[in-house]
């Protein structure tokens, strides 16, 4: 079969901000992952140097912290000042203890070392608007006020300049400690948080809780759209007992959620005229955008680790590439954070002696390097894959950008593990990098990487996509 794939009009910019990551105080993501002072691999700050190097290579431009659901019980003042004085708390959400040695300053320092913007999620459940505003002042204050001075007394003369602030997390989901599952309560409290926080620093950007329920998103935006820079969406695809093709079926929900939120956002004005003069901070400028600030595959299990210590196979990496195509393709998605960076549903896994990349890291690295630029509208004709377990899914997934140097980059994923496809995208020559593995069930471990990467010259009129492969084609035109 020969498929013509056409990359035509441009539709906005794909920025690096869609290649963000997330770390939470959850199992061994931070404690024993990023931060492990007892490890021989740790540096003077307690950061695992092997993790640091891999995080630098993944190069997320934005990193979210400290949760996630653990935000419900996170009081930021537990995580500042001399480490010897920091307490531990019981981790009410994820079990074990919440070691607060890796707090705000350590997070910001880690962000600086890997070149990421910090993105902080505030506690809207057991915290108060004032506590959140004090956190903003501790991070960004430049004057002589108490929390700015407190930061200085901890040795940080310069402000941390944290720009991105999430106003709660998954409030709709009614987790153990949730109080905002009724949207009217979320709206009421979020407004107070935003006021306190924006009056502390007028320049911060707010990310409000959205979800796959259009009525929730409408209630949030109706009440708060002038204060909403980004609407947060979260998505986890899962196998759900549907075997090889389960996550691909789940991806339909991701696309639908993004499209519905984007359509809703289009009904609100791009800029806010005649902003209420009683508010002494500016309204949003520019369109509300989507922050897909948690996404990945998560096969939830009712065990003590909730299935979070996932071992990803090659099928999962093929899904991750498809999800990145969905993200690249949609102009409303301005920020995205893969959840999470280390050990917990993560591209990086640590062992006592070192660390390794799971399969899902490889498409991430490839896209992070190339898929940034002018978004090109690209169509791949429908090739229906009739799967026994998950019904009908599309065999091919694609996205395209034109990089700043003019190179056209087309990412095409063949999600059919049983056969190759041949596509044509024009004339002339290009190069193609292909990621594959010998079986969809292959996994990486500390001793071996199952992902094969090959770059070769290709004729653009006839390109063969191997079964179950992630392909990135670069051409001058
Ligand atoms: O990433 C794991 C958890 O998934 C996060 O804590 C929560 O926000 C989401 O439900």
UniProtKB/TrEMBL annotation:
Domain Alpha-L-arabinofuranosidase C-terminal stretches: 293-469
Coiled coil: none
Chemical reaction(s) catalysed: Hydrolysis of terminal non-reducing alpha-L-arabinofuranoside residues in alpha-L-arabinosides
Bilayer-crossing regions: none
Classification via Pfam families: Alpha-L-AF_C, ASD1_dom
One example GO MF annotation: alpha-L-arabinofuranosidase activity
EC number: 3.2.1.55
Domain of life: Bacteria
Keywords: Carbohydrate metabolism, Glycosidase, Hydrolase
Top EC class, one word: hydrolase
Oligomer status and interactors: Homohexamer; trimer of dimers.
Protein name per UniProt: non-reducing end alpha-L-arabinofuranosidase
């Amino acid at each position: 079969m020969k498929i013509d794939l056409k990359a035509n009009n441009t539709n906005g910019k794909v920025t690096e901000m869609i290649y963000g990551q997330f770390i939470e105080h959850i199992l061994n993501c931070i404690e024993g992952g990023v931060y492990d002072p007892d490890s021989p691999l740790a540096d003077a700050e307690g950061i695992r140097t092997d993790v640091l190097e891999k995080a630098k290579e993944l190069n997320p431009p934005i990193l979210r912290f400290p949760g996630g659901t653990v935000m419900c019980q996170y009081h930021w003042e537990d995580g500042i000042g001399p480490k010897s004085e920091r307490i531990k708390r019981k981790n009410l959400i994820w079990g074990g203890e919440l070691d607060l040695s890796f707090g705000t300053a350590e997070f910001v320092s880690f962000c600086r070392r890997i070149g990421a913007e910090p993105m902080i999620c505030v506690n809207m459940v057991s915290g108060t608007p004032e506590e959140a505003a004090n956190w903003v002042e501790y991070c960004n204050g430049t004057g002589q006020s108490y929390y700015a001075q407190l930061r200085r007394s901890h040795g940080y003369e310069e402000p941390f300049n944290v720009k991105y602030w999430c106003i709660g997390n998954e409030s709709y989901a009614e987790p153990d400690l949730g109080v905002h599952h009724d949207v009217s309560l979320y709206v009421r409290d979020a407004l107070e948080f935003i006021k306190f926080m924006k009056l502390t620093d007028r320049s911060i950007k707010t990310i409000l809780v959205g979800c796959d329920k259009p009525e929730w998103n409408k209630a949030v935006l109706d009440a708060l759209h002038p204060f909403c820079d980004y609407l947060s969406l979260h998505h986890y695809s899962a196998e759900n007992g549907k075997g090889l093709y389960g996550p691909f079926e789940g991806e339909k929900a991701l696309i639908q959620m993004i499209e519905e939120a984007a359509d809703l956002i289009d009904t609100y004005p791009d800029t806010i005229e005649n902003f209420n003069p009683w508010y002494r901070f500016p309204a949003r400028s520019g369109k509300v955008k989507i922050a897909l600030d948690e996404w990945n595959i998560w096969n939830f299990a009712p065990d003590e680790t909730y299935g979070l210590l996932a071992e990803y196979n090659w099928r999962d990496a093929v899904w991750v590439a498809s999800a990145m195509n969905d993200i690249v393709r949609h102009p409303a998605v301005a920020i995205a954070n893969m959840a999470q960076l280390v050990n917990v549903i993560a591209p990086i896994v640590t062992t006592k002696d070192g660390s390794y990349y799971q399969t899902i890291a490889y498409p991430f690295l490839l896209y992070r390097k190339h898929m940034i630029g002018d978004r090109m509208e690209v169509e791949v004709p429908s090739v229906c894959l009739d799967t026994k377990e998950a019904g009908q899914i599309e065999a091919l997934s694609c996205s395209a950008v034109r990089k700043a140097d003019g190179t056209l980059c087309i990412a095409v994923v063949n999600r059919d593990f049983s056969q190759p496809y041949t596509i044509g995208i024009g004339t002339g020559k290009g190069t193609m990098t292909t990621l594959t593995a010998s079986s969809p069930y292959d996994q990486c471990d500390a001793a071996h990487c199952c992902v094969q990467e090959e770059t070769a010259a290709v004729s653009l009129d006839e390109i063969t996509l191997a079964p179950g492969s992630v392909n990135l084609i670069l051409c001058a035109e």
